[in-house]
Amino acid sequence: MAVVPYQQESGSKKEQVARMFNNISRRYDFLNHFLSLGIDRGWRRKAIGLLRSRRPQQILDVATGTGDFAVQAMELNPQKVVGVDISEGMLDVGRKKVHARGLDNVVSLQYGDSENLPFADSSFDAITVGFGVRNFEDLRRGLQEMHRVLKPGGMAVILEFSKPRAFPFKQVYNFYFSFILPKVGKMVSKDDSAYTYLPKSVEAFPDGEKFLHILQEVGFKQNQCRSLTFGVSSIYTGTK
Questions:
Q1: What percentage of the chain exceeds 90 in pLDDT?
Q2: How far apart are CA 69 and CA 51, in angstroms?
Q3: What is the DSSP string of 201-232?
Q4: 95 Cβ partners below 8 Å, 6+ apart?
Q5: Which secondary structure element, helix H or strand E, spans residue 159, and what is its range?
Q6: pTM, whole model, 2 decimals?
């Protein structure tokens, strides 16, 4: 059975994920930084840093949310950054962020389905995804679409939560992620399910070597996994 935000409600995972992010969009940035103690900013910097030597000019940020990764990509001095997401609520917050930073001429955030990307083959030099692939309804289909729109030789950089395995950090992390985070998230976001879905979706995600194997299956090469903060998250890279 698929892990979805609202188990008792109808609708596909895609529809439910969009509804969930619409519900929490106004509080998402605050909760994201607060609940990760700000560490998520450092994770994004590390991920973007892996693209620096490649100097990508056309960048696609899949599941862009409020555009944090898309804005971070400006460190690479690209010609264009396009962010796509299925939540109009998150995109609205992201567009205001982009406008406030005076980046409208470079960064564009638009509605887009990760499993049916509205771009031609080989359109982008690099693709980024921040904490989004575990929300794909069809993981392989989403990764295949990313591979399709990536230029030959281009790199995909995927930042995603993973599961710590070392004692005692694993136990501390599981307690925080399963009990503290959902309570704080529910209180601030006013959504009963969003931050209960988060740990369940991380638990169900095929992280580490399993995910590297899936990247290889859909066509990515030179795939690597870099563990961050005792395994709380990982950066995956692959080239076309």
A1: 70
A2: 13
A3: HHHHS--THHHHHHHHHTT-EEEEEEEEGGGT
A4: 67, 109
A5: strand 150-161
A6: 0.94
Cα 8 to chain centroid distance, Å, stands at 25
Cβ neighbors of 94 (< 8 A, separation 6 or more) are 64, 65, 66, 67, 70, 83, 85, 109
Say how far apart CA 183 and CA 195 lie, in whole Å: 8
pLDDT digits (tens, 9 = 90+) for 171-204: 888 888 788 878 887 887 787 787 888 889 989 9
Token pair recorded at residue 126: 């690099």
CATH number of the structural domain 13-165+206-239:
3.40.50.150
Q: What are the residues facing 110 on neighbouring strands?
A: 84
Judge if the upstream peptide bond of residue 199 is cis by omega within 30 degrees of 0.
no
Largest alpha-carbon pair distance within the chain? Answer: 48
Neighbours of 219 (CB within 10 A): 14
Closest CA to 126 of 71, 228, 57: 57
3-state secondary structure of 77: coil
